[in-house]
Amino acid sequence: MTTRVCFELRVRPERIEEYRERHSPVRAEMLEEIAAAGRRNYSLFLADGGRLIGYYETDDDDAAQAYLAASPIAARWEEEMAPFFLDLGGRPDQAATGLVEVFNLEQQLERAR
Fold first, then answer.
1. Is the pTM value of this prediction over 0.85?
2. Going from the N-terminus, what domains does the chain have, and what CATH number goes with each?
3. What pLDDT shows up at residue 91?
């Protein structure tokens, strides 16, 4: 079963442009590591002021988290990216605030039919 995961982080306002540049493009080895972890349909959305919302889908989020937590490639990337964030208590991938899904169109349509 697919799990949809959404999270929030805060990018330091003075580093927003640099943050954007670091993601255009992300290093190929990191992209491959995210995919190998089992994450797909992964997107980041950045609002004015540095509010960052991330979204991805996975079949096993615990396994994806564990894979990336043990990955030296992900550790290097997250070490480089950590200074971009406000109020971070650990590696960005593990310290992000999870958001609770309260509505999904496809699920509700399926139930309604």
1. yes
2. 3-112 (3.30.70.100)
3. 81
